[in-house]
């Protein structure tokens, strides 16, 4: 769903219903103007993307077992094979 769809869904009768934020976010954003809200939203989107990617990398690293290294053979033994 896009932002335009969200705005269309908010229409009620003659006007718009008030946007409700989570209480913790409302406390932080209460005095922010629209430009500040957009700037913070973009920053949070970047942070969210970085957290998702870092979580994926950490999970992948935890699942993979260390690969056993092959022993280096002296040249004479390597020739025998």
Shape, principal axes of CA atoms = rod-shaped
Strand fraction equals: under 5%
**What value does the Rg take, in angstroms?**
27 Å
Distance between the termini: 63 Å
The run of helices and strands is HEEHHH
How would you sum up the major sheet? 2 strands, antiparallel
Outline the structure in words.
The structure is a single chain. The chain has 81 residues and is mostly helical. It has a domain at 23-60. The protein has helices at residues 3-10, 23-29, 34-63, 75-80, and strands spanning 11-12, 15-16. It has a two-stranded antiparallel ribbon. The chain is rod-shaped, with a radius of gyration of 27 Å. The protein starts with a helix and ends with a helix.
Task: Name some characteristics of this structure.
rod-shaped; mainly alpha; two-stranded antiparallel sheet; about 80 residues; about 65% helix
In short:
With 81 residues, the protein is mainly alpha-helical. It has helices at residues 3-10, 23-29, 34-63, 75-80, and strands at residues 11-12, 15-16. It has a domain at 23-60.
Which helices and strands, and how do they pair?
Blueprint: H1 3-10, E1 11-12, E2 15-16, H2 23-29, H3 34-63, H4 75-80
């Amino acid at each position: 769903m896009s932002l335009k769809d969200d705005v269309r869904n908010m229409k009620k009768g003659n006007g718009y219903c008030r946007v409700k934020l989570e209480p913790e976010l409302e406390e932080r954003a209460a005095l922010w103007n629209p430009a500040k809200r957009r700037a913070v939203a973009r920053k949070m989107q970047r942070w969210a993307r970085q957290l998702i990617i870092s979580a994926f990398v950490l999970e992948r690293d935890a699942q993979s077992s260390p690969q056993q290294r092959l022993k280096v053979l002296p040249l004479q033994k390597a020739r025998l094979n």
